[in-house]
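Team,

Forwarding the record for the chain on the shared tracking sheet. I've put the sequence and predicted structure together so nobody has to dig through attachments.
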Amino acid sequence: MTKTFAAEFVGTFTLVLFGCGAAVLAGFGVVGQLGIAFAFGLAIVAMAYGIGPISGCHVNPAVSFGAWIAGRLSTQNMLSYWVAQCLGAIVGAGVLYLIASGSIDYSIAEDGLGQNGYEAGSPGGYSLISGAVFEIVATFIFLVTILGVTQRGAPSQFAGLAIGLTLVLIHIVGIQVTGVSVNPARSLGPAVWVLGGAIEQLWLFIVAPMVGAGLAGWAFRAKLLTAEES
């Protein structure tokens, strides 16, 4: 448990620091939306091979929830993963804030920490409904990929790459909608430091990813999307 806790903490820390860091420290003017998308995806690829053998590299409460629904994770492990992931995200966002604060041009009130949002908090001004639909559908697809490439018989050596590239794809499409969460911990980390609207809108980025992940987990538990015979 200590090893898996440490692995999930480090993995989520890395995802938030480098994914959100690409948005805050480089931003649209330097790396652009495509660069930010790849930062999130490459962070997952790196951690999938770095900590995957220890914890499976969930680094996302929705992934752990989907795996639990699918019958691949115990309740005790899921709760432990959640704590590690949330703490890793909060510390990762805190380190990002510390780094960003070293610039005289940075203001957390104006520049944020890559937090997620809808309506006024959405990069493209998208509505609550648009944000909810995107987050549910994107998380469902993300979990289908994760649970699919890690099932028995799948080419597991390529799992990390497939999962990371799926996250890149999701970000390319969705950054303008919500900033892309598909991960309650990734949303929690920046929101804890930014406060205000980020905290007020955080509920969506907990509920919607969990719904999408739960649907995907159920599909695998019911063997609708597995290679095994039902």
